[in-house]
Amino acid sequence: MEEAQALRGLSGQIAQLDRLDETLIERMRHEALTAPAPWKAEYGEFQSGGWWTTSLMNASGEAGDVLIADGSARSTPLLKHMPTTAGLLADLGLSYMWVRLARLEANAFLWEHRDYNELDQVERHRLHIPLHTNSSAFLVTGGTKVHMAGGRIWRLTPTYAHGVCNLLGPGRIHLIADVYADDAYDRLARRTQLHPSVAEPLPQASEAVLAERFAAARRLAGLGYIDAAEQLLLRLFYSFALPEGTVYDLIADLHTVLGDSEANQRWTTAKAKLLALAS
Amino acid sequence: MPTLSLAPAELRLAELTEANQPSQLPLLTRIAGLLSASAAVTHLLVRGSLASGTADRLSDVDFIVGVHDRDLPAFTLALNDLMTVAGGALLPGWRDTIVADLGGIGFVFLVQHEGKLQQVDLYLAPASQIATVRRKVAGKVLLDRPPAEVAPEQTERATAYVSELLKRPKSCAELLIEHLVLAVLLHKRIRRGQRFIAYAEWHLLHCATKDLVKAALAPASRFWGWYQLREEIALTPIGRACLADLDAAITSPAVPDATDVEAALDRVLALTERACPDALDGLSDAITAYRTYLELA
């Protein structure tokens, strides 16, 4: 009963929409892997490094323009190299704000964050079409791990705190479409589900485990590996169900212990920005 | 027609040189940069084919890492976290039992780098031993910043720590990782046609399987090596199934091919699932990724 309720709650954050034809996905994957894409690394503060995007549709029509914003999207030259993908986007008939390919390399992370905070307050949705993935690439939202398997369209509500990782690789490529709500979207979203098998609740972290991981981070920092110490704590978000922002608090605490008040302040500010917390 | 004699500097060789660099060089650079960021690291030596200029695309990246004696225990404890978080290691490091004893501890990591699985060997040696190590090992020095002082008690503690660690029996998870590392080494030997080394490493793989069976089913065994296996292990259906696996291993060809290595891996994973499933905890994604990289190799 509780489980079903939790799953219903989670389906507001992440849901499975329509299935897509396997051969269509295969052709889209081939296009994504072979098209001459100008991959860009933006949103540096949100990621570990290894998150690359390139635009298929946006307001400027430039593939290298990847900082998303409101507007009516048109095709970039890159999409002309991807006729199958262009065909699917046209068939869906959605009101596109931005369509991107996103590549997440092995051992790369998008840290716990919220999206859309900087955009207009209108109804919009984020759709994911996994093109190339592996079992160690997953999303965490609401303390639950979801591997977005290939073969269908997924809907993510990125205004909930979430994070994405590709722990071990190989690289993951998703098509991500931000779309405005309209009749076409409503038709697509009529049949949403979240099958229990795709949602794996993460374990709670005991005090002892958190203390041990904090000690491991201190050990790394003590040896001079500050970045690695911070990343070790950031990665806890992908292993345990933690209250929102815990990993940022732990890093701030680490710097307090290390006597670095400037770094403590920097991470406190980063937490507010990444989680779109009111100041 | 006059003869034009070009000085080497006039030839545009830079691009050609760049294109012919070993593919492991970016990984070597990245790991060297990572390790040397700690003041605890006093020396970095590269050894093996990358140091001698005989590397091929299968060559491993092999470092001797001098660590201040004072910091050796903490550095060793932190190494798995460091290599996982910042080095891209798929699995915890395997405590290398093949490497020659130079007064330190060797670890082998399997690291994903640019879509490929690479082997990174790190031999941690106390800084106080580095002069001796350099006399014994040919290598190229990347970093040389000897500590101002190493107190005798720090050396004593480092030596005791190394000795304790080397004596500690391996867990089932460590023995499983040993199989995964040895399988990578074997694939390399097979591709290079190094039959004698393949034979030796294949034998090590069988020994690791025997050790895994014993660690799982007879952890308190008083018998050495291969002795009394039947008496201690074949007492239950699980034990008999594991010994059947071991029998299949030792009756396989003396020099394996790639199919034999894959079959051995399948056997060991099934054996682990049967005899010590806890050893697989947290490793299933890593093993999936490992096999994907092996297929892509």
From TrEMBL, chain A:
The lineage of its organism: Bacteria, Bacillati, Actinomycetota, Actinomycetes, Kitasatosporales. It comes from Streptomyces harbinensis. SUPFAM superfamilies: Clavaminate synthase-like. Residues 39-180 form the Aspartyl/asparaginy/proline hydroxylase domain. This is Aspartyl/Asparaginyl beta-hydroxylase. It comes from the Bacteria. InterPro entries: Asp/Arg/Pro-Hydrxlase (IPR007803), IPNS-like_sf (IPR027443).
UniProtKB/TrEMBL annotation, chain B:
InterPro entries: NT_sf (IPR043519). This is Nucleotidyltransferase domain-containing protein. It comes from Streptomyces harbinensis.
